[in-house]
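Issue 218. Parser rejects a valid record. Input:
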Amino acid sequence: MTITSSFIPAETLADKSQISMSQIRTGLGQTGVLSFGDADIYRFYKFQYLTSPNIPTSGDSVNMNRMRRQLALFTVTNDDSSGINAISRMGTNYRSGATTFTVIINSGVILGAPNTSTPAINIEGFQPTDDAVIINNGIISGAGGKGGDPGNLATANPTLGAIGGTAIKIRGPSGWKGTIDNVGEIYGGGGGGGGGEGYFTLTNNNKVRNNFYGAAGGGGAGFVVGQGGAGLGNAAGGQDGTRTTGGGAQSSVGGSSGKGGNIGVAGGSGAVAGGQPGYYLDGSAYITFINHAGTKGGQIRSG
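Output the parser choked on:
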């Protein structure tokens, strides 16, 4: 399994007028004596304390009320393209208004979106008192956009390259913000290259004699790559993208196509425009970055 999950059940910690160490011990699944020096206490608490995700393992004060919350922790341990939808992944473990949802992408690991319609991470439907934390040490990638199909002037127009997919989408109540600690890379998918125009020749009585297609556009880059445009008539199909590089531009007797965009980059134009890169963050109004050390590429939208 490439995405592991763990939950500290809210039933053992929530709705208490007082909270005791024995209740916290039960929630952590521990037995025996438990002290505030125990690593598991701080491991749990650091994901509840959003203003300092890297809280020390000892010597820091602990707010007991934070211990009442449900911790839903997802760790991406190997490359994965299934995406993470917060609410659906938590399922019945989501405690409305009392949950801290945390995703950790390990170093050297890619979390990719499954397609251009679905973000790699989607956080929506939270209540004002829920929390969301993304700790990215690896790569979060939108899917690559499809390359445009070729045209032939007589019967078909070339199509635009498709927009790349979104890496992170987040929405929440007014005034609510999640947190991103990014020391890795976050990219929208590369846009698809635009399709090439073709041409035709006429007979003496103005009927179509030869009908040539232009070239198909290259697919955009992404962990799930963008497919090249369709091969039609005399034109071969466009080149698919790779994880980092867009499919190449092509030429035909009709007309040249556009190159697919590299990761986080727009696709090139053929006879028509290439697709825009996907959003590395769709919903910046709902996010606070506590670490800007990582790389980001693509578009950003407030939400």
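Fixed in the parser; the record now loads. The chain has a mean pLDDT of 82.
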